[in-house]
Predict the 3D structure of the following.
Amino acid sequence: MNQRPRRTRKNSIIRNLVAETRLSKDQFIYPYFVTHGQNVKHPIAAMPGINHFSVDTLLKDVEAGLKVGINKLLLFGVGEPKTADGSSAYGKESIVPGAVSVLKKTFGDDLFVITDVCVCAYTTHGHCGILTSPPAPLQGRGEKLSVVDNDLSVELLCKMALSHAQAGADMVAPSDMMDGRIGAMRNKLDENGFVNTGIMSYAVKFASAYYGPFREAADSAPQSGDRKSYQMDARNGNETVREALLDEEEGADIIMVKPALAYLDIIQRVKESVLLPVACYNVSGEYTMVKTAAAAGYIDEQKIVMENMTAFTRAGADIIITYHARDIVEKGWL
Ligand code: PBG
Ligand code: ZN
């Protein structure tokens, strides 16, 4: 027998030597939820270990994270007044631009700040864009039909992205899934002089039940209907490549696939199809499943988390957005 694959599994030295997948703290982005008020550090029940922070407590937490090397954040705004037109998403007193400017003033280029751009936490109806009623001939017989108007929504999202860039965001991350928003956003940023503000596109985002805990955290669940007319259908693969290529063409800097665990095949396909870096989002439902099973003593948290991170990386993700990032880095799980 001259073929003995076990030879390179003999001990950890040789296993580490031949490992095909290597993780680094550089690849992680850590999400934060920021809200109004002072001295707020409010645990999010559906996401054990994750909190709502006000700007002052956020600063302290970010500082502690920076010490261990968590230097890339994804910011979500929570608790803004909700309106039908989502206008609180870009107002001067808006929570995210406020937080960004304080973070950048305090930490400068030691911290890379990415902001989520979507209006579902800012609209009364909880959709990721502006709702309009189609003209009478297109109306059905029953309840009055409303749809998320693509092009009106893109205008609103562009205003939101610009307000984040003006506050100093290093990168904006549109998560709304409207058509053409990457190109429109790139133009809007460029016209206003923000040629170096990056765009991480949630290019391949599925309509998924894995966002459940997040919608509680961000208070962003749709009040009626679902997101299936703009987020992708889990049954489709070719379409993910189409979406990714469109956003590459429109000027995105990073292409994201979301969720991650149930979509490893998609991460691999997208990675093989684009030349841009590929990120995956290890979303709230994936996080909460691991945390609750670990807390109940059914699984080994560290081992499961690192097995998942390895799988994302092996599938082709260059970048991982995960609520586990702080634990991974701080507890030395790498
Ligand atoms: C907002 C947004 C969502 C997530 C990120 N941005 C929720 C959604 O689309 O309903 C999900 C993040 C997570 O579940 O961790 N559009
Ligand atoms: Zn949204």
